[in-house]
Hints:
It is a single chain. By secondary structure, the chain is an alpha/beta fold. The protein folds into 2 domains: 7-119, Winged helix-like DNA-binding domain superfamily/Winged helix DNA-binding domain (Arc Repressor Mutant, subunit A, Orthogonal Bundle); 126-285, Glucose-6-phosphate isomerase like protein, domain 1 (Rossmann fold). The chain contains 13 helices and 5 strands. The chain has helices spanning 13-20, 26-42, 47-54, 58-67, 73-84, 90-96, 103-124, 127-139, 152-166, 179-182, 202-213, 251-267, 269-285; strands at 143-147, 169-171, 191-196, 217-222, 235-238. A 5-stranded parallel β-sheet has the order 2-1-3-4-5. α2 (26-42) packs across α4, α3 (47-54) packs across α4 (58-67) and α9 runs parallel beside α12 (251-267). The chain is elongated. Residues 1-8 have low confidence and may be disordered.
Amino acid sequence: MDDTKDLKDSKKLISDIQAQYPRFSKGQKLIAQYILSNYDKVAFMTACKLGDTVGVSESTVVRFANALGYSGYPKLQAALQELIKNKLTTVQRVEMAKEYSDDYTILNKVLKSDMDNIKTTLEEIDHKAFEDSANRLLKARKIYILGMRSSFTIAQYLGFYLDIILDNVHIIRMDMGDAFEQIVRIDENDVIIAISFPRYSKKSYQIVNYAKEKGAHIISLTDSLFAPVASLADNTLLVKSNMASFVDSLVPALSIVNALIVAVGMKEKDDIKEYFDDLETIWDRYSVYE
């Protein structure tokens, strides 16, 4: 099995470990037993840490990953993270970050995690899906943007700039009446952008499912093909989002949103220039800025 191992295989990882258990060496069986009982912890342990915990060498841990068909331990770890990240409670996320010994360690690990996530996102994102998404936004009669809980921050940011460019944007807000009332007129001429990250909101899925039934084009911005909204999407923009702590990192998602705004804006640059010319006149007349 190579590095392009399908995401779907992580769903059967536990059953694979159980099936291969009789063939494992003594040390590998210790690892297998620990993973089966504590896979939510192992998903965020280094190979060295896992080896120390169960009493085997780091090389034994690497060979265990190879025996399961992974090119290395990081691939096994990624599969475990994919398997459990939507099930982690906030308490468990706090627990997995308890080894951050001081403020500098936190600063270093969190920023490095964001950098790695952006780099991986750039390498793996579907360029055609990104291009089609930008074109769909330009052609849409109306654009609906959905983001629940922490994802609402991204939805607001995207909506603010798209509204400058296109002037047909509606951010679905939970404080402005029922969400279904806000999209009741959605149809095949419209686009809905659904931003969804673990722990996935049931409400988001329900809203997107309704939009799908009405024939709208669905663009999902999410971290996994397992995400409920991804199963409904016409275009999925996958964002790498390994968790560094109990706080969801929005940095990679914000980068994709920035790129999408610029891509749409460059196709409408003459209109944008005129718009900002008018704004500058207003800002100057009413002394908006120092």
